Amino acid sequence: MSNNPFLNAFAAAAYITAVASVLYYGPKTVAPVDGVIVPIAFLSLFVLSTAMMGYFFLYQPARLFFENRHKEAAKLFLLTTAIFACITAAAMFALLFLSTRLS
């Protein structure tokens, strides 16, 4: 990905937003599907999501680590994780705020 932890964290958040939007709006636009394809699709999405999050969070730190730049690797991983945690907290607070304002 990048050596910029903000870019990595926001890329992860954007991916999650895109997947969540498809999961939320998808059933509203297509007819329900019955059969084995649904669990296959969900397991495939889970594996894809794991790979994407691994890429966003671990690729650059692992590369730095294997270049013997251990402190930079740890710093990048921890900053990316901390920034993502802040994005997640902001989303949760926004959800809480909106749910109390709408009810």
Folded structure, characterized:
The chain is mainly alpha-helical and 103 residues long. It has one domain. It contains three helices and no strands. α1 packs antiparallel against α2. The longest helix is centred in the last third of the chain and has 33 residues. The protein is flat, with a radius of gyration of 17 Å. The N and C termini lie far apart (41 Å).
Distance between the termini: 41 Å
User: Total domains, how many?
Assistant: 1
Quote the average pLDDT: 94
Overall 3D shape: flat
Number of helical segments with 4 or more residues: 3
Which structural category fits the helices and strands? Answer: mainly alpha
Oligomer: single chain
Low-confidence stretches: none
Rounded to an integer, what's the Rg over CA atoms?
A: 17 Å
User: What is the number of strand segments?
Assistant: 0
- Main sheet: strands, sense, barrel: none
Strand content: under 5%
Order of helices and strands: HHH
Which range best describes the helical content: under 10%, 10-25%, 25-40%, 40-55%, 55-70% or over 70%? over 70%
Task: Give a topology summary.
Elements: H1 5-29, H2 37-66, H3 70-102
